[in-house]
Design a protein that fits this description.
alpha+beta, eight-stranded mixed β-sheet
Length: 186
Amino acid sequence: MVRIITERLLIRDHVAEDIADLHKLISNQEVMYFLPEIKTSSLSESQQNLNVALEEAVKVNRSKYFFAIVCNKTSEYIGEIGFTKTAECSEGNVMNLGYFILKEFWGKGIIPEASKAVIKYAFDNIGTIKIETGCAKVNKKSERVMEKIGLIKEAELKKHSVIHGKFYDRVEYRLLKEEWQSDWLG
């Protein structure tokens, strides 16, 4: 079981008891507005989502790393972070980073803290050579996180994503392992 500890957070593989907290998060219309493909409408849909995370957590050669973010002092559930392998070759893996948290934790520096920890884990432990992520350009809070954690803007794609029947521009960010080593480690 993966367990990553930061100053305030425990980032860990899911357990079956996460279902109520996970459902509260991924069924929330406001929190999941820009992620309609993940948003659920019922407890059974949320359970299916959790089942995928539980199944991936026990695989030897994982392609998906879905983690719960909890307060390391109180064990209060905060949200989700993780990455999915999008490419693999002899040089290493490319991972797509994703994150979302309960609204009451927005603006508290949780996602930058968690992101830096999981990026370090990816580069140090699972042969990752590149982290990539992106969001709808109008999702300024998410883009600000990408900038805050030192990711580099790679592209701005016009009318790229359809969300709730409307086209949105998308921004794409990246961090290569050698950029992380030089920028993050001094």
